[in-house]
Amino acid sequence: MRTVAPSTSARTERATTAAPPPAALAASYETVSSGTLTYRGAVVVSNTGGAQSDRWTLTITVPLLATVQGVEGPRPSQSGTAWSFSGSAVPAGGSTRVVFDVLLDVGSLLGATQPLSCRVAGEDCAGL
């Protein structure tokens, strides 16, 4: 009968850590207040991922001839009925808020209380 002696050489093991999950941006819309030809909206852009996001762009679409003003957050740019807000990075688990007033034209959707669409990072905003 043959006996095998246990190995005396040290085993080297490497500890590996998984990379944190990537940034995951999502947004939610809420109407803060509304009047006959105006409403104030707010969008919270959240990063639910494990890494800081890069810059982000939120785009809302409003009725024809409506204007966006009174913005709290990134300054918007307009292309037709689309208004875009570009912001800086959002840390993992963090969020940022954009607040804006929409002034409606009499011929547009009288009494509208939210944008026609709202998107960030290719995803629709919740609450719309």
Structure explained in plain terms:
The protein has 128 residues and is mostly beta strands. The protein has a single domain, classed as Sandwich (Immunoglobulin-like). Helices cover 0% and strands 45% of the residues. The protein contains no helices and 9 strands. The protein has strands at 25-34, 38-47, 56-61, 67-72, 76-79, 82-87, 95-103, 117-120, 123-124. The strands form 2 sheets. It has a 5-stranded antiparallel β-sheet with strand order 5-6-3-8-9, with no helix packed on it. The termini are far apart. GO terms for molecular function: hydrolase activity, hydrolyzing O-glycosyl compounds; polysaccharide binding. This is CBM2 domain-containing protein. Residues 18-128 form the CBM2 domain. One of its GO terms (biological process) is carbohydrate metabolic process. It comes from Phytohabitans houttuyneae.
Q: Which class best fits the helix and strand makeup?
A: mainly beta
Mean pLDDT: 88
User: How many distinct domains?
Assistant: 1
Q: State the end-to-end CA separation.
A: 78 Å
What would the principal axes of the Cα set say about the shape? elongated
Order of helices and strands: EEEEEEEEE
Examine the coordinates and then state which fold CATH places here, giving the name of the CATH topology.
Immunoglobulin-like
Radius of gyration (Å)? 24 Å
InterPro entries: CBD2, CBM2/CBM3_carb-bd_dom_sf, CBM2_carb-bd_dom_sf
Organism: Phytohabitans houttuyneae
Protein name: CBM2 domain-containing protein
GO molecular function, one term: polysaccharide binding
